[in-house]
Automatic annotation (TrEMBL):
GO terms for molecular function: zinc ion binding. Residues 108-138 form the Zinc finger DksA/TraR C4-type domain. A zinc finger (dksA C4-type) spans 112-136. Interacts directly with the RNA polymerase. The lineage of its organism: Bacteria, Pseudomonadati, Pseudomonadota, Gammaproteobacteria, Alteromonadales. The keyword Metal-binding applies. Residues 34-104 form the DnaK suppressor protein DksA N-terminal domain. It comes from Bowmanella dokdonensis. It holds the Pfam family DksA_N. This is RNA polymerase-binding transcription factor DksA. The keyword Cytoplasm applies. GO terms for biological process: regulation of gene expression. Transcription factor that acts by binding directly to the RNA polymerase (RNAP). Required for negative regulation of rRNA expression and positive regulation of several amino acid biosynthesis promoters. Also required for regulation of fis expression. It is found in: Cytoplasm.
Length: 149
């Protein structure tokens, strides 16, 4: 059964007109082909998010009404509030995508910020903005839970 991340990844790949990257035996990690694959994936994702932002702005402008009924007005305000929170999360994600694209250009993409090992093509397809390998990310999440507990 596909996971939510798998479905999201397939959606991103389809959006970019890409299929999952097929590594070849003996292929160098983060070679030009892999970097171009992730560059295209990230740009398509960023463009999709920007379109959503534009759609929200137009929707809010078009739907903004001064309802005489306080319940209708409150419902519209709640809807707009939810949309704005979603767009704020997406705005932060766009910044993270931009940071990742910059890392590609600086030849610093695909390696763990913490330990320096390869993050891996499959993990990067599941989470293109990943900057930690799965082991370091797991440890960071455990530490975070301990701090909150």
């Amino acid at each position: 059964m596909p996971t939510e991340n798998t479905n999201k990844t397939l959606g991103l790949l389809a959006l970019a007109g890409l299929s999952p990257y097929q590594e070849k035996a003996g292929e160098e990690y983060m070679n030009d082909n892999q970097l171009e694959h992730f560059r295209r994936l990230l740009r398509a994702w960023r463009d999709q998010l920007r379109q959503e932002v534009d759609r929200t702005v137009h929707h809010m402008q078009d739907e903004a009404a001064n309802f005489p009924d306080p319940v209708d007005r409150a419902a519209q305000e709640e809807e707009f509030s939810l949309e704005l929170r979603t767009r704020d999360r997406e705005r932060k994600l766009i910044k993270k995508i931009e940071k990742t694209l910059k890392r590609i250009e600086e030849d610093d993409f695909g390696f763990c910020d913490s330990c320096g090992i390869e993050i891996g093509v499959r993990r990067l397809e599941a989470r293109p903005t990943a900057d930690l390998c799965i082991d370091c990310k797991t440890m960071a999440e455990i530490k975070e839970k301990q701090m909150q507990g």
